[in-house]
């Protein structure tokens, strides 16, 4: 089965499977240059569209006017409740939670990193024992980092209306400052 082209501007040679997870007998796929998630069903060799992976960032909904070169998913993992977690690149790497199996919308959980250092890419995102382990790279000349997110603490903070500190890493703002 061929992965469909859902944005109309890239040839079939550019539809590369970047990340995937398996749940409920299907493989859920994110393809490079695609703006959404696809489901592959091996029982009938079919590919179906699940939905658009782009979350709302603050009051900004990054769906219109941006080509797919500027929007990427980095890493994918399912938690114990089969919610999908991934990094979404747009002005820094945002942690996104998407309960797509129950009809939910992608939720922006904030920038991945610390107040001093923000992630820009995450080639690995793993889930184990209630925590996400996020490996990042592409941060100028310093080495890669690993962020650990305790999902119970994150959920408690969001339920209480608390936000983390703002990331002051200048590297995240390079696109805004044009270089």
Physical arrangement of strands within the biggest beta sheet? 1-2-3-4
Q: What is the overall silhouette? A: globular
Q: Could you report the average pLDDT, rounded to the nearest whole number?
A: 80
Total DSSP E strands: 11
Helix proportion range: under 10%
Strand content: 35-45%
Distance between the termini: 41 Å
State the order of secondary-structure elements, H for helix, E for strand. Answer: EEEEEEEEEEEH
What low-confidence regions span 5 or more consecutive residues with pLDDT below 50? 65-69
Q: Calculate Rg over CA atoms.
A: 16 Å
Backbone structural class = mainly beta
Instruction: Tell me about the largest β-sheet.
Output: 4 strands, antiparallel
What is the overall number of helices? 1
What this model shows, in words?
The protein is mainly beta and 179 residues long. Helix content is 5%, strand content 40%. The chain contains 1 helix and 11 strands; from the N terminus they run E-E-E-E-E-E-E-E-E-E-E-H. The protein is globular, with a radius of gyration of 16 Å. The termini are far apart.
Task: Compile the SSE list and pairings.
Elements: E1 17-23, E2 26-31, E3 36-41, E4 46-52, E5 72-78, E6 84-89, E7 93-98, E8 107-111, E9 121-128, E10 131-137, E11 145-150, H1 151-159
Antiparallel strand pairs: 1-2, 2-3, 3-4, 5-6, 6-7, 7-8, 9-10, 10-11
């Amino acid at each position: 089965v061929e992965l469909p082209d859902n944005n109309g501007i890239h040839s079939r040679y550019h539809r590369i499977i970047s990340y995937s997870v398996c749940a409920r007998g299907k493989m859920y796929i994110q393809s490079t240059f695609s703006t959404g998630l696809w489901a592959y069903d091996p029982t009938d060799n079919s590919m179906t569209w699940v939905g658009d992976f782009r979350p709302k960032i603050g009051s900004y909904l990054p769906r219109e006017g941006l080509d797919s070169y500027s929007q990427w998913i980095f890493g994918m993992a399912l938690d114990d409740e089969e919610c999908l977690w991934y990094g979404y690149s747009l002005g820094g790497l945002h942690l996104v939670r998407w309960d797509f199996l129950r009809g939910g919308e992608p939720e922006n959980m904030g920038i991945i990193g610390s107040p001093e250092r923000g992630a820009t890419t995450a080639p690995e995102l793993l889930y184990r024992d209630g925590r996400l382990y996020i490996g990042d790279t592409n941060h100028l000349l310093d080495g890669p980092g690993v962020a650990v997110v305790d999902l119970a603490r994150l959920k408690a903070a969001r339920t209480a209306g608390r936000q983390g500190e703002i990331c002051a890493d200048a590297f995240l703002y390079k696109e805004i400052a044009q270089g």
